[in-house]
TrEMBL record, chains A, B:
The lineage of its organism: Bacteria, Pseudomonadati, Planctomycetota, Planctomycetia, Pirellulales. InterPro entries: CinA, CinA_KH, Competence-induced_CinA, MoaB/Mog-like_dom_sf, MoaB/Mog_dom. It holds the Pfam family CinA_KH. It comes from Roseiconus nitratireducens. This is Competence/damage-inducible protein A. SUPFAM superfamilies: Molybdenum cofactor biosynthesis proteins. Residues 7-179 form the MoaB/Mog domain.
Length: 421, 421
């Protein structure tokens, strides 16, 4: 199988001027990589027709697949349709099916379609539509002939991330697979890990993260959480899932002790909630120092019997003053007043007031869990890193410690239960 | 003055593969825009020598200034120096001054310089160094001859954001100004605003945000906070500051009532802290629902007499239970127990569990301020927006309401003082 290549093109003055951060290119690069396609270039260009034509022509000459975002709106600044027509040397024509969809979206919102939106139903002759279930901008799918090489394929999608992502997954990815004669189905599974650096993870996974592996395993890191993304392509969804199951087990055999759950958006606080739900127990958090990560994460779960509140203070005496108790008994008092089963304490988040953007030197942070019957489990970690992520890393390390305590407790309880006649 | 143009180039497989999000290109685009230079393209390329050569050649042909990041490390993947040498057709030579700096950085860290780092002191013949005060990778500044046009100038900087930013401000920006015969000094001031949308702000500023204005005023938005960035170029820092003062006043005349402070990193919670410090008063926050923004923001200030703690619950009954009081008196009890002067309540942050990435419909949120003597000031807003920013917007609206209450209180107090003999 020859090496297939791609380029991601982002269109809009708001990107070239720096008014907006382009996150589409990263997302598309990951997805194309999942398909086994080597993304070689990103190009960003403003709303100038000739520049768009130049960028599309260069891209279509040098790679097999071009995926572009932006420039498909109804205004005069939106030039992607014209640029593509110029590149393939075809006029634009009105497609009734696209126009009907746009009109129906407006009538669903009880609005008349402005006449300028008609332009969104114009396509270069010979191109295919890419259906947009959410918005008025259909995408354009057009082939570009190249001398001596297979034609390249250009997919133009809207810049709105939610629309772009759905259209890529629903239509573009299957068309890419079909065009290169690959398996017709594709499925993903994301596994989440905490407690290891990226390079150690890569080392332990070894050849599993090779780009040639089937199914492919991709690694990404976000604020000290590692995601492994398994992508399986096969002739049926069942076969995809079977492949994923096998690879998932191989990964668990290597790094299972660091795995806390599956799913793109699954975080440790979801894992904690699940475990507490299972036990019918509840938690409060106490965060001291310069951040309140746990309070924010658990609050995002909404009202739940599991999480009973977040308390955030500069230091322990501030908490003690609220309940008018001595400092040493403040945490125990907090647990009693809230009626929760567990208290998780971060003591303390460091200040980030250092030289801008320099990594924060590692500092000692203590994590304390106070459990039923007032038993206390504490540990100290040395944690540092980039200021943008160090507080999140500390909050996550606190959750990892709490998960460790829960696991120990449950194995103790199990063995106690096992030895009780 | 002719229109000067630029391209930003980002180098590294970690960017083309989507493993890392490129934020350098956005920052550089804003800075180049501040200098009055029109950024027309961004290009991202992996660690492949021929691709780097192609991208640099295309960029140098089509714009006046190219600013690149990445590929200046000591490993075999770092190809920027070789690519630039190939593009200008000059060999690489060792620069003793650069080597001395690299060696001295290692000896400061009590480490021997690995021999592979020597390559970081290699420069294309005829190029200039760009000093890197923080790291071992000096930048490269090289001119590229173009037929019939002024030569283009290529600046290659390391990919580490903190190093890149400092080198751009210290060396690249002054060299760009010098090369185009512009004023020799440049100063920035960022003014911050809350309570208005971007398009309304643009409308009220009118011609002030024209790209030709001197000094130039740039507008950016981050989670509903608007930043206006004034950039003045003149023959001395004093003249720059004089220009900035005048423009700042013009802006205040138009939108002064929405202005809450100056400085890139100055946020509303800093403004609140400053005002409470001035009064010698203190605040606690109570956040209900699905977020804990205020707790996080105020915690980041560290221990201060101003902020006495953050309390986060699903709803008011949860708070009432902690203090074993009836729900209606829970907020008053909280204020008394903490001994703070003011309580700011967000009631409540909505759940974000909607269709992924679709804008959240506007929902009613109540903001309550309880002040000294138990007086209560409340307001209700309808707030929605993109899930990534809607909770921050609600927290910021709460701070805006608190600032309004403080301002009213102080004008009431002033007028009371004025009428008292």
């Amino acid at each position: 199988m020859t090496n297939l290549t791609a380029e991601v093109v982002s269109i809009g003055d708001e990107m070239t001027s720096g008014a907006r951060l382009d996150t589409n290119a990263q997302w598309l690069s990951q997805r194309l990589g999942d398909l086994g396609i080597d993304v070689q270039f990103h190009s960003t260009v403003g709303d100038t027709l000739q520049h768009n034509i130049d960028v599309f022509r260069t891209a279509a000459e040098r790679v097999d697949f071009v995926v572009a975002t932006g420039g498909l709106g109804p205004t005069r600044d939106d030039l992607t349709r014209q640029a593509l027509a110029a590149v393939v040397g075809q006029p634009l024509e009105l497609r009734q099916s696209a126009l009907d969809h746009i009109t129906s979206l407006f009538s669903k919102r009880n609005r008349e379609m402005p006449s300028r939106n008609e332009v969104q139903a114009m396509f270069p002759v010979g191109s295919q539509e890419i259906f947009n279930p959410q918005g008025t901008a259909p995408g354009v799918d057009v082939a570009f002939d190249r001398q001596g090489k297979r034609p390249s394929r250009v997919f133009a999608l809207p810049g709105v991330p939610a629309e772009m992502k759905r259209m890529f997954d629903q239509t573009v990815a299957p068309r890419i697979l079909e065009s290169v004669g690959r398996r017709s189905h594709i499925e993903h599974l994301v596994m989440k890990f905490f407690g290891i650096g990226e390079s150690d993870m890569e080392h332990r996974l070894g050849e599993m993260i090779s780009r040639d592996r089937i199914p492919r395993v991709g690694i990404t890191v976000s604020s000290a959480t590692i995601s492994l993304r398994i992508t399986a392509m096969a002739d049926s969804p069942e076969q995809c899932r079977e492949l994923i199951r096998g690879t998932r087990q191989e990964i668990l055999d290597r790094v299972g002790e660091l795995h806390f759950g599956d799913g793109e958006d699954f975080e440790q606080y979801h894992a904690v909630r699940r475990e507490l739900d299972r036990r019918g127990q509840s938690l409060v958090s106490l965060e001291l120092g310069n951040a309140a990560k746990l309070a924010g994460w658990f609050a995002s779960l909404g009202k739940t019997a599991t999480y009973r509140g977040g308390f955030c203070f500069a230091d322990l005496p501030e908490l003690a003053a609220v309940f008018a108790v001595a400092v040493p008994s403040a945490t125990q008092t907090l647990l009693e007043k809230t009626g929760a089963d567990w208290l998780l304490v971060v003591d303390a988040y460091p200040s980030l007031e250092v030289e801008a953007e320099e990594p924060l030197p590692a500092a000692e942070v203590r994590f304390v869990v106070v459990g039923p019957d007032g038993r206390t489990f504490s540990t100290t970690s040395r944690l540092g890193g980039h200021p943008a992520i160090v507080h999140a890393r500390i909050g996550k390390a606190a959750l990892a410690w709490f998960r460790t305590v829960l696991a120990r407790e449950s194995s103790t309880a199990d063995s106690a239960a096992a030895t009780t006649p």
